[in-house]
Amino acid sequence: MISENMEKALNHQIALEGYASQYYLAMASWCDREGMEGAAAFLHNQSEEEREHMLKIFHYLSEVDGFPITPGLEQPPIEFESVQEVFRLVYEHEKKVTASINKLLGICYAENDYTTLQFLQWYVEEQREEENQARTILDKIKLIGEGGQSLYYIDKELKKILAAAMAAEADAGAEEA
Fold first, then answer.
1. pLDDT of 34-93, one tens digit each?
2. Which residue among 39, 92, 107, 166 sits deepest, i.e. has the most Cβ atoms within 10 Å of its Cβ?
3. pLDDT tens, position by position, 148-161
4. What percent of the chain is modeled with pLDDT above 70?
5. Domain 4-89+136-176 carries which CATH code?
């Protein structure tokens, strides 16, 4: 059985992951409108991943006799200044999610909740990967620069990053089977 405090904290994380899914979906829509189909596809994929993260916690809470709450999601921004701003915001949001996961770990230790601690270990690794990926994309955007031709190369690079991520997921899935 899970503590009331941990249940509340995990429901907060459900809402944060759900918001991330909506946020990245709004960013994908903006990129699509701006003609950046590689960036849009990348962000659509990120949105779906965040939804999966939310559902994973949702199901976990049910398994441990908690009560997961479907979050009411606030409207994310729909306008952005540039693709650089979009990925700066992605990086900032991923750091916020990491901080929230770390708070959950602190609650686990304080309450000797080793079951939830074990469950959250996947999120620790996932967040390290998510932050690294966002930072890498920002670094590439800085290297490529700004302007019309630069946007084309940024978009192409994001297509490559998405393809590599999907291939890695497929390989991981094949290893698990």
1. 999 999 999 999 999 999 999 999 999 999 999 999 989 789 999 999 999 999 999 999
2. 39
3. 778 778 888 888 88
4. 99
5. 1.20.1260.10
d(CA 82, CA 110): 43
Question: At how many degrees (to 10) do helices 148-176 and 114-144 cross?
Answer: 150
Report yes or no: 24 and 133 within 8 Å, Cβ to Cβ.
Answer: no
**Where do we find the tokens 């991520």?**
165
Identify the burial level of 140 via C-beta atoms within 10 angstroms of its C-beta, where 0-12 means exposed, 13-18 middle and 19 or more buried: middle
Q: Which residue has the tokens 């903006």?
A: 30
What is the SS3 assignment for 104? helix
Q: Which residue has the tokens 């929230």?
A: 100
Contact 22, 76 (CB under 8 A): yes
Task: Tell me: pLDDT of 146 over 80.
Answer: no
- Other C-beta atoms closer than 10 Å to the C-beta of 85 total 14
